[in-house]
Specification:
single chain, 183 residues, alpha+beta, 7-stranded antiparallel β-sheet, 3 helices, elongated
């Protein structure tokens, strides 16, 4: 009788080991809808935090004695596609936009050039550099491999032009959500 009990226990252990071995190799469940299609760990909330951290770092490159105020123009998720392609507005990216008002007369181009140079030395690459439409200023867009999907846009008018402002925008990577993040 004792050997039957031992055999039954041994069979149970073998069966448990077999079931465990079969399930441990099963594929992981699909990424949740709040994760990026590119990185299965990035959520819209995480892109919000990082986009604001990047904007803070760029803003810190402008000497505080030159800044009179900073207006947050946008800090929200925006639907990327919409319409028939993305009817539920679940494909979004985080947008941060700030207007940095400067002491007049301001050297806007010089301040923008300094910021772009500093960003370049920390790995950001200029992907667009041109004149602002009709203003003679500068419009620069930058990306960085280490921050895949994030983009910085910095605009400045001519030195001495009014209003004396720098426009700063940071856009996060595209993220798939449940459709509730877009505002």
């Amino acid at each position: 009788m004792r050997s039957l009990h031992t055999a039954g226990a041994l069979t149970g252990v073998v069966l448990l080991a077999f079931v465990t071995a079969c399930t441990s190799g099963s594929p992981a469940p699909d990424a949740s809808p709040t994760r990026s299609s590119q990185e299965d760990t990035v959520t819209i909330d995480q892109t919000q935090i990082k986009a604001n951290e990047i904007a803070d770092a760029v803003q810190a490159l402008i000497p505080s004695d030159q800044v009179t105020s900073v207006e947050v123009v946008d800090d929200s998720a925006g639907s990327l596609l919409g319409g028939d392609v993305d009817a539920d507005s679940s494909v979004v990216e985080w947008h941060v936009q700030r207007t940095i008002s400067l002491r007049e007369p301001a050297n806007q181009l010089q301040l923008a050039d300094h910021a772009v140079d500093e960003l370049g030395s920390s790995g950001w690459k200029v992907v667009y550099d041109g004149e602002t439409t009709g203003a003679g200023g500068r419009w620069v867009e930058l990306t960085r491999d280490a921050d895949e999907g994030y983009q910085i846009r910095l605009q400045a008018g001519d030195d001495g032009s009014t209003p004396a402002v720098l426009s700063l925008a940071v856009t996060g990577p595209t993220v798939e959500t449940d459709g509730d993040a877009a505002t």
